[in-house]
Amino acid sequence: MAENKTKPTEISVNEFIRNSDPKKIDDSFELVKIMQKLSGEPAKMWGASIVGFGSYDYQYKSGHSGTMCKIGFSPRKTGFSLYILNCESENQINLVKELGKIKMGKACIYFNKLSDLNLEILEKLILESLEETKKMWG
Residue 79 in 3-state DSSP? Predict the structure, then answer.
C-alpha cells in the first residue's frame, strides 16, 4: 500500500505564506484567520504546500488509510486550492452554488482570490465540512 505523502511538517506557515505569490499573501493570511477561528486548530504545514487545520485518521474500504488535515488550502501559482471534505450533501451542494467564482475538482474547490467568494457562504461550507468529517471519521 502506498504511503500518504501529505503529512504534517515543521515548515513555518508564516514563512511559507510570505514566500508564496505576492498577490496571494493577504488572502492567505485571511484564510488562516477564518480557518483557525472555525476549526479551533492552529495552522500547520502539510507537505510542502498545504496549510492545514486539525487532523483525522481515515480508512477506506479498499484498505487505504492515513491521516489528513480536516480543512486546508494552498496558494498555488494558478490560484487557491481549498481542501474540504467532498461536497456531497444537498446542503453542501447548495452552498457551493452560492460560493462565488470557483471551479470544482474531485476533492478541491479552486478560486483565484477571496474577493471572488461570498465569505459568509465560505464559512458555512467550512463548518459543514468540519461537521461531516467529525461524523465520518470521529
Answer: strand
What percent of the chain has a predicted confidence (pLDDT) above 70? 95
74 or 85, greater pLDDT: 74
Can you tell me which residue has the cell 477564518? 34
> Residue 117 and residue 124: Cα distance in Å, rounded?
12
User: In the chain, how many H helices and how many E strands?
Assistant: 4, 8
Enter the C-alpha cell of residue 45. Answer: 504545514
The secondary element (H helix, E strand) that includes residue 126 is helix 119-137
Phi then psi for residue 70, to 5 deg, are -65, -45
DSSP 13-59: HHHHHHTS-GGGHHHHHHHHHHHHHHH---EEEETTTEEEES-EEEE
What average pLDDT does this structure show over 90-96?
A: 85
CB 83 within 8 A of CB 69: yes
103: phi then psi, degrees, rounded to nearest 5: -130, 145
Contact predicate 95/109, CB 8 Å: no
